[in-house]
Write a structure and sequence with these properties.
There is one protein chain. The chain is an alpha/beta fold and 508 residues long. Helix content is 25%, strand content 17%. The strands form three sheets. Strands 1, 2, 3, 4, 5, 6, 7, 8, 9, 10 and 11 form an eleven-stranded mixed sheet that branches. Strands 12-13-14-17 form a four-stranded antiparallel sheet, with helices on one face. Strands 15-16 form a two-stranded antiparallel ribbon.
């Protein structure tokens, strides 16, 4: 697709556990000039929200659905197969059906068994690892081989495959490979872009990087090679900046930049634990980290998009956008909105007009956030937030306060002042926030959430629409949906009317 058309190539680059404040265009202290330039040439989002962990956010991107609906709301394996059921219709499948070539390079983490691998879920080809980079550390334990043999644990591998073909193990994942992973991922991705830039149809490629996910080790070309970088986290940021630049350069050198949308974001917040070789990370001015949901620093990360001549340059927006929204947005930009499923809840919105500069509003004014136990933790409407439950760390319990905690993010972006402690005259906001939760709960009556471990035989929802009204009455949804007129009448037109006195007659 060397010449511009209305259907762009789509390149999605996803970082792993990089906080809102890590890149220098978001205030990070390590210079990231290539990432900053990418942001300046398009739109940079300051209120971009993700889900609680790796699998959930990747589910959101792939399906446009809350991970709790798909049974993928936690990375902790349980009984039954992990990842997306084959029934889910991924953005790769949608774009493939719309005539796109599709590929994935890097981390998948949405299924490790046949029927749930990338080439089963819409990708024409892939190269990468099925789960997470932490598997690089497995072979470093002396006990691994004996434990793996006794309990049937697989040896972590890099895999490659093509749709309809065999999955081939390329090499073992270990700490020798770990520092080279992102170099290899980007090398595969750029080779693909060069090849398909000359093709006769647009392409979608998903470049899923490994940094910054423990166990970590910087690439030799960046490991303390610059005296301006004192620690390992800064070295990892420098490499990430270089890898993003490689992808952008490849698109430009292939002559397809005017018809290629590049989206770069992070899947989760920076960690709050001291990981060897990974000390550092910033979630900007916000309270919270990866292990302390649902504070803003836990689920607000960096994101940007560039499409020269289409996405206006130099835009910085605080409009809410979430990882779920790429699904319908990509479908719209590809001219394939008609392929978005209508037989299931799709939680994402179409933000294409916002990205293209035709609207100042993203189309999203709220976000319902779920924890890694699949239960709601907070609801945000514009910049007002209700926290139902919270967690103070990886070794701490999830706490349910006596009353929901309320925060005014306009005045208190660090969520330091729980308004419930000080005043109750803002309780009209409960009606706004509770309505969002009720709408979700009602949707699960007709479309029950798929449970983790559900088998490949799941073939869709089979309707319970007739129960919705009954459930609506039970949870009081009718009270929110059908509010009566205010008993005190209309809004007073003057202070005198507010005091109960009639206004003075107009002079004759």
């Amino acid at each position: 697709m060397a010449e511009a058309t209305d259907r762009p190539n789509i390149v999605v680059v996803l970082a792993d556990n990089v906080g809102w404040g890590d890149w220098s265009c978001y205030g990070g202290s390590t210079p990231t000039p290539r990432i900053d330039k990418l942001a300046s040439e398009g739109i940079r989002l300051t209120n971009y929200c993700v889900e609680s962990e790796c699998c959930p956010t990747r589910t959101a991107i792939m399906t446009g659905r809350q991970s709790v609906r798909c049974g993928t709301y936690t990375v902790v394996p349980g009984a039954g197969p992990t990842g997306l059921t084959p029934w889910e219709y991924t953005i790769a499948e949608l774009l493939s059906d719309a005539g796109y070539a599709t590929s994935l390079f890097g981390k998948w983490h949405l299924g490790e068994t046949e029927g749930r691998l990338p080439t089963d879920q819409g990708f024409d080809e892939w190269w990468g690892y099925r789960n997470s980079a932490n598997e690089c550390g497995w072979p470093s334990y002396a006990a691994f081989q004996s434990v793996a043999k006794e309990f049937g644990i697989y040896t972590p591998m890099i895999w490659e495959g093509k749709k309809g073909g065999e999955q081939t193990a390329v090499r073992e994942m270990d700490m020798k490979l770990r520092p080279l992973l992102d170099e290899l991922i980007v090398e595969k991705a750029t080779d693909y872009i060069k090849q398909h830039a000359k093709g006769d149809k647009p392409f979608f490629t998903y470049v899923s990087l490994s940094h910054v996910h423990f166990p970590e080790q910087a690439h030799p070309d960046f490991d303390q090679t610059d005296p301006s970088r004192f620690g390992p986290y800064a070295d990892l940021m420098a490499e990430q900046d270089y890898r993003v630049g490689q992808v952008v350069d490849c698109v430009e050198q292939a002559g397809i930049s005017d018809n290629t949308l590049i989206v770069f974001s992070s899947d989760n917040a920076a960690l709050d634990i001291g990981v060897p070789n990974t000390w550092g990370g910033s979630n900007g001015p916000f309270r919270g980290t990866f292990f302390t949901p649902p504070w803003e620093g836990n689920y607000r990360t960096g994101a940007m998009a560039r499409w020269p001549g289409k996405v206006p340059a130099g835009v910085v927006s605080d409009e809410i956008l979430t990882a779920h929204d790429w699904y319908k947005t990509f479908a719209a930009l590809a001219g394939a909105s008609d392929k978005v499923p209508t037989d299931r809840p799709i939680d994402g919105i179409d933000a294409s007009q916002f990205l293209l500069g035709h609207s100042q509003a993203s189309g999203r004014d709220s976000y319902l956030f779920f924890g890694s136990d699949g239960e709601p933790m907070s609801i945000k409407w514009r910049n007002f937030k209700m926290v139902h439950r919270y967690c103070d760390g990886i070794d701490q319990p999830i706490v349910t306060p006596f009353l929901p905690m309320m925060y005014d993010l306009w005045s208190d972006p660090q969520e330091r002042y729980n308004l419930t402690n000080f005043r109750f005259d803002f309780d009209f906001m409960f009606h706004v926030l509770v309505k969002i939760g009720i709408e979700y709960k009602l949707s699960t009556v007709e479309y029950p959430n798929i449970k983790p471990g559900t088998g490949n035989d799941f073939d869709g929802y089979h309707g319970a629409e007739h129960l919705v009204d009954e459930q609506k009455a039970k949870i009081g949804a009718h009270r929110v949906a059908n509010q009566p007129e205010a008993p005190m009448g209309g809004t007073p037109e003057s202070p005198a009317q507010a005091r109960g006195a009639a206004p003075s007659p107009a002079p004759r």
